[in-house]
Design goal:
364 residues; mainly alpha; 12 helices
Length: 364
Amino acid sequence: MAGSNSFDQYRPQEPPRRPKRRQSGKQKGRGRRGEELMVPEAQFEQFDSYYGKPIVKFPPWEWPIAGYLFLGGLAGGSSMLSVGSRVTGNAELARNASLVAFSAASVGSAFLVVDLGRPERLLNMFRVFKLSSPMNVGAWILGAFSSLAAFPAAAELDELSNRAVPVPKVLRHLLHGLATPAAMGAGLLGSPLAAYTAVLLGDTSVPAWQAARRALPELFVSSAACASGGAGMLTTSTANNAPARVLAVAGAAADVVSMHRLKDSVGEVMREAFETGKAGRLLKAAEVCTLSGGVVAVLAGRKRAAAAAAGAALLAGSCLTRFGIMEAGRQSVADPKYVVEPQRERLNKRVSQGIIGDSITTAE
């Protein structure tokens, strides 16, 4: 073709220009260089988050995990109560505490499997032993505790059934011979089982749990004492439940004190997560149940109905405490101020100390 360059077809073509739009009277927003804005300017509140999404993601835990937290404490406390009862010769309380410990550990394990979705996920936790992972260490504690607690529970059930189940004499003799050593081993693991879940919560990025990480173990242990003492009072006759009553009263007093110390330790802003909304209602109900159960336990004496009512109230208080702590963590994630305000406080503290070379905020 005359007068044309054969290479013109390979040259990059400029994109077509958009026709300039007229700005209406309502479109007054312009950029720094005067160009028309295609979207309205963003307006941020004091504690805004990205498109309304939480700044920190809550772990994928539902109610079975809160139930597991309660049952783990009940199992751990009951195993220690069983050991003390065996040593002092209180056969009835030792039997009941052993059965409660194994039952609570079994149901708690089932709750854990329900939350995980598939049983093999729990088994996969035993592929390694990792001290830096509270969840992995807790899985090993739970597995060892459940295995040991099964021996005294099976021996007690064999006695209760008057040895009606046909079992070879050698196996029955071995079972009863291992019952006491296994009960002692479960008792040694009882305290770690009751407390490790508090460490697990404090190791997450959930603001409420992170702020309360130093107070949570104390609260969980005292709450476990409430639950195990209450279970002992509920299942054992008044003639033999004195050790359980003492444990229940001591646990109730420690539980109330620990909860108030936890709230005082987290600061004014984070305290709201434990005192408002659903978490506040659950924890208030837990305190009422724990206080009333402790008072009734002191006054119950030889009255069986009063002892059973006190035990039920203490069990309810311990359970509500775990559900309340879980809900407080959920509320602290939903509101961005529980993430932003503590970070600002830590940053201001660094600045006041003369650390002004960066803007890193670190936990105390």
